[in-house]
Amino acid sequence: MTDETRTDDTSEQREVRLGKRARLLERGEQAYPVGVPVTDGIGAVRSRHEGLEADVATGERVGVAGRIVHLRNTGKLCFAALQAGDGERIQAMVSLDAVGEQSLADWKADVDLGDQLFVSGEVITSRRGELSIRVEQWRIAAKALLPLPNLHAELSEETRVRNRYLDLIARPAARDMVRTRSTAVASMRATFAARGYLELETPMLQVQHGGASARPFVTRSNAFDTDLYLRIAPELFLKRAVVGGLERVFEINRNFRNEGADSTHSPEFAMLESYEAYSDYHGIAALTQDLVQQAALAVGGSTTVTWTDGTEFDLGGEWDRIAMYPSLSEAAGVEITPETPLDELRALADRLEIEVAHPIRGKYVEELWEHFVKPTLSRPTFVLDFPVDTSPLVRDHRSQPGVVEKWDLYVRGFELATGYSELTDPVVQRQRFVEQARLAAGGDPEAMRIDEEFLRALEFGMPPTGGLGMGVDRLLMALTGEGIRETILFPLVK
């Protein structure tokens, strides 16, 4: 069947269902009532009567509601499977002797697969032992004008992503992802609370973008008659809070980056950022490991997670730590240091056909590291000590010239989080911003601009601080093995 034919069929079914809606209204009933007298959830009814033998009448009367996901009409007895939002189901049995001739006829004429339905009656088990409600009264809770997809066939990825509501109806895995995400986020909030952190909210509309190297979305404020940027990171505002004396802070919220989209990147994504005064990138690494491991325990009861394809992945124990320059040198078979000339790095990249946009020495080092070392990582691994020229907000290494105290955490072969010993010297920070502005003037769309307000805040004195940034969507990827579009409830699609 072609897409065009399916569209015609859907249109025809919609017209038929609109007719049923009209009949309900003519009878003085409501197709979309303000409420129905629900007394119990389907799951609660099932839990109270688990293990009943076949053909039992409990004597308990309940009122439940759910979506019809299976419908079978026979002569004097009709059956419907009602599904609650959490996927729990119960059978509704509508019989002539219980509801009467007119109600049974109305059921057959006006009830469709996909309708939201309320039923009340006695809880029983059928002759086959299926927990059921022997319906005494029923009413439409919401008339479905469009038919459900075939619930016995797998939905296409396109349908799942574009019509997530259908995905949630049809696929337990889709509902499980929402619960897993909620559980993981609640776990992170609990971990922060136990450590004395405060949760903050910082601006999403900013007069100047900053806090990361990324291309921003630009919008316009009519009230202020000025261009604004959707934030690429909350970093510079959270650091202002630390300057103000809020020494342990975090935020879980949305970031927006006007860049590519693939299996690990989305233009709109959820981000966790946190800052802790009197910590450094080693302390933040320990915090990050605890956050991820506690989330795994909350979701699945173990630090060994099972992905949707059945693969087990161990997030437990102490995670590996490697340094960028030594690991790159070993893998490439040639010593590469912060002093390696740009020409040598460019020549090596050219031989490997690695292209580097807006090339500076640090970008070559990072691209070469991704080529040689990244594919070899299997366990969760902190990659430490990055080039200074790609890390404008990070403190210089306390003992190694030319690098900064930054790590990236790799899990499942992708970057999950990054951590810094934060740069708190306003004089050095200004120098770094000036260099970024030079790169921006040279055409680098991801380079930062000079943020005078942030620099002014630093000049009031920011204590030694460690910072963390972690993608919430990517955390779910690490816990479930799914791609980023499956971990986001309503991803942006073209």
Automatic annotation (TrEMBL):
Its cofactor is Mg(2+). Keywords: Aminoacyl-tRNA synthetase, ATP-binding, Cytoplasm, Ligase, Magnesium, Metal-binding, Nucleotide-binding, Protein biosynthesis. The keyword Acyltransferase does not apply. Mg(2+) 1 binds at residues 408, 415. Binds 3 Mg(2+) ions per subunit. It holds the Pfam family tRNA_anti-codon. SUPFAM superfamilies: Class II aaRS and biotin synthetases, Nucleic acid-binding proteins. The keyword Repressor does not apply. GO terms for molecular function: lysine-tRNA ligase activity. It catalyses: tRNA(Lys) + L-lysine + ATP = L-lysyl-tRNA(Lys) + AMP + diphosphate. PROSITE patterns: AA_TRNA_LIGASE_II. Mg(2+) 2 binds at residue 415. It is found in: Cytoplasm. Its EC number is 6.1.1.6. Residues 186-491 form the Aminoacyl-transfer RNA synthetases class-II family profile domain. Homodimer. HAMAP family: Lys_tRNA_synth_class2 (MF_00252). Belongs to the class-II aminoacyl-tRNA synthetase family. This is Lysine--tRNA ligase. It comes from Amnibacterium endophyticum. The lineage of its organism: Bacteria, Bacillati, Actinomycetota, Actinomycetes, Micrococcales.
